[in-house]
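Hello support,

Our group uses your service weekly, and this is the first time we've seen a run hang past the timeout. The protein is Pyrroline-5-carboxylate reductase. I'm not sure whether the cause is the sequence or the server load. Input pasted verbatim:
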Amino acid sequence: MNNQHIAILGSGNIGLSLAKGLAKAKIYSPAQITLTRRNVAALAPLKEEGFLTTGNNAEAVKQADIIVLAILPQQLNKLLDEVKSAIDPAKHLLISVISGVSCEDIRKYLGMEVQVVRVMPNTAISIGQSMTCIATDNATEENVNIVKAMFDSVGVSIQINEELMTSATALCACGIAFFLRAIRAASQGGTEIGFHAHDALKMAAQTAKGAADLLLQLASHPEHEIDKVTSPKGCTIAGLNEMEHNGFSSAMIKGIKTSAEKAGVLYKD
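Update from on-call engineer: The timeout came from a worker crash unrelated to the input. Re-ran successfully.
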């Protein structure tokens, strides 16, 4: 545990999950983390756990070394206006989890050369299983390592080029919904062939989890694992071909591309 203080501005699902994950991993104590929200009363349970809470973003920034911006793109400019006078480029490291906002966008609006690291986690952060992508255009290696350690405590992180961050948003952040929809569809298929809905959902979810672990734990390729269960004239290949005839892979690819296009203009719109 270190002696830095973190201010998480905008304590919604991602911000709260990050705070809880950092405390659980004992990287930071609750007393080192300030959570802000317009409705401070909603943070009462976190305050009881030892986290600091406030509705004053500027005061939270003054007390912090690391500032996490965890709000919606359309709320960013107003928030930056609130905290601008409290930011010290020589002291502060900014971490942005905001879709479609570049490191340069933040510095340009603030009018100062503060270090900014852009991150894109997903909602699996709430169970310590996030896939988080990290990028920066001006942060030191030391600060990037600090950010990586933070997000490794709530899942897995990788550093990528910043121009790929909108793509990371589509594949990893939006991707949670895509894979959940695939599991839901599989469970509905299970119900249609005879299983009760709750059993079908459990079976589909565990099967999806097993498929993912085959790739992650064995460093295998999907087609290699698919080949293991597709015998000539068998039922697996018949089902796969039927799905492909109906555009399964094409629909997933098009959906990811569409989400990436939308993510790229959220802040500008």
